[in-house]
Amino acid sequence: MSTMKFSDLGLSEPVLRALADCGYTTPTPIQEAAIPIVNEGHDLIACAQTGTGKTAAFMLPVIDDIATRGSNPGDDPLALVLTPTRELALQIEENVRAYGKHVGTRSCVILGGVSSGPQINALRRGVDVVIATPGRLIDLLEQGEVNLGDVDFLILDEADRMLDLGFVHDVRWISDQVPRPRQTLLFSATMSPAVRSLASTVQTDAQSVSVAPPATVADNIDQQVMFVKKEHKPDLLVDLLQVDATERALVFTGTKMAATLVARHLEQAGIKAEAIHSNKSQSQRQRALDKFTEGKARVLVATDIVARGIDVDDITHVINYELPHDAENYVHRIGRTARAGKAGVAVSLCCVEDVSNLRGVESLVKQPLRVVDDHRWHSETVAACLVASGRAARQRARAGRGRGSGSKWAR
Ligand code: AMP
């Protein structure tokens, strides 16, 4: 177990304060390895998966550098993060806001599928960090709405997925728009020859780091799923928490708002619950956590962003009130129970909106979750929706195989 502290990594005071606000106590291995390399001004090629703390590994030194060198002299971005998906872009922006809150880092996301007006306005107001998916960024570059001339940090996140999604030419083209000298940080869950080839053209003398993938699911966790209509989730949750065996439960929601509402609903049902999320002050969070640890609150409702900092023993149940977008987060969430060889239960409440996330989780953990349907809110409609989406996925896979095998060898 490492004893390194964030302050040992040379980060400035406002950034350290933001990390404390997030409830982070110690850097993760990828942060320990990557931050000094970036601080020394090198290019970095990092093999790390989601869930390892990789976002902070590249964002902290960048935010710190922007903060300590004084404010951005102009309004054009100093850092550009390219990501394969909208979800990832939004998640990174949430992190930038959290880590940069005391230094006033200005960030914006550039993504397709939504109107470009607000994105253009945000760029015109001035930004320090742009987080973008390649397609829309190219559109805005071509329209002259983005100037990458001041960018000192180019970050390619989940490079392998960008290549899988066919963005290789876009990524190279965008990289060519960022003047050298610059620092290029490339993160990827896997290091295929294609990733290395991309790295060799966009980077110079990169130093490499690699960390083990996050833990897999322990065998002693009973992973259950309950199908339920969205509007019945609050009632089902109350039922689950009223069972005596649910001694200490950690409930995960997808948003801060949901965490607050769920905790309020439980209190109204006479169940002592506390909510923690990144809008609460460090002292509020500590108080909530203390109540939970001391058993004064049987339930803690949390969002993923703060959950990594929670280290509480004897959690009997982890309840996913909403399934996470990112399947890796599922593994982190449920890893809070069944510690020290004890058995634990993880229950996921799945409504129609959760079905695709459930499929993601099941493919990551390589097993279907155990369906529990002997509860009064069971929904056959949701169960049928999962079956239907499975059929569609299989059809897509079959169609994809047909096309894929042809083009793969033709190239
Ligand atoms: P990532 O791999 O960047 O997706 O991060 C996974 C999760 O870990 C996110 O919820 C982060 O907020 C959280 N996290 C990142 N760094 C730390 C840290 N040093 N301590 C606790 N949690 C962290």
Write the layout of secondary structure elements.
Layout (H helix, E strand, L loop, with lengths): L12 H9 L7 H11 L4 E4 L6 H15 L10 E4 L3 H14 L7 E4 L6 H9 L3 E4 L1 H9 L10 E4 L2 H6 L3 H10 L5 E6 L4 H10 L4 E4 L10 E7 L5 H10 L6 E5 L2 H13 L4 E4 L5 H13 L4 E5 H4 L9 E4 L6 H8 L9 E7 L4 H11 L4 E2 L8 H31 L1
Parallel strand pairs: 1-6, 1-7, 2-4, 2-5, 3-4, 5-6, 8-13, 8-14, 9-11, 9-12, 10-11, 12-13
Describe the protein in words.
This protein has 411 residues and is α/β, with parallel strands linked by helices. The protein has 2 domains: 6-210, Rossmann fold; 221-396, P-loop containing nucleotide triphosphate hydrolases (Rossmann fold, 3-Layer(aba) Sandwich), CATH 3.40.50. The chain is built from 16 helices and 14 strands. The protein has helices at residues 13-21, 29-39, 54-68, 86-99, 117-125, 134-142, 159-164, 168-177, 193-202, 233-242, 256-268, 282-294, 304-307, 327-334, 355-365, 380-410; strands spanning 44-47, 79-82, 107-110, 129-132, 153-156, 183-188, 207-210, 221-227, 249-253, 273-276, 299-303, 317-320, 344-350, 370-371. A 7-stranded parallel sheet has the order 3-4-2-5-6-1-7, sandwiched between helices. Strands 10-11-9-12-13-8-14 form a 7-stranded parallel sheet, sandwiched between helices. α2 (29-39) packs parallel to α3 (54-68) and α14 (327-334) packs across α15 (355-365). The model is unreliable at 401-411 (pLDDT under 50). The chain binds adenosine monophosphate. Adenosine monophosphate is lined by residues 24, 27-28, 31, 50-56, 304-305, 308-309. The site of adenosine monophosphate has 15 residues, from α3 and α13.
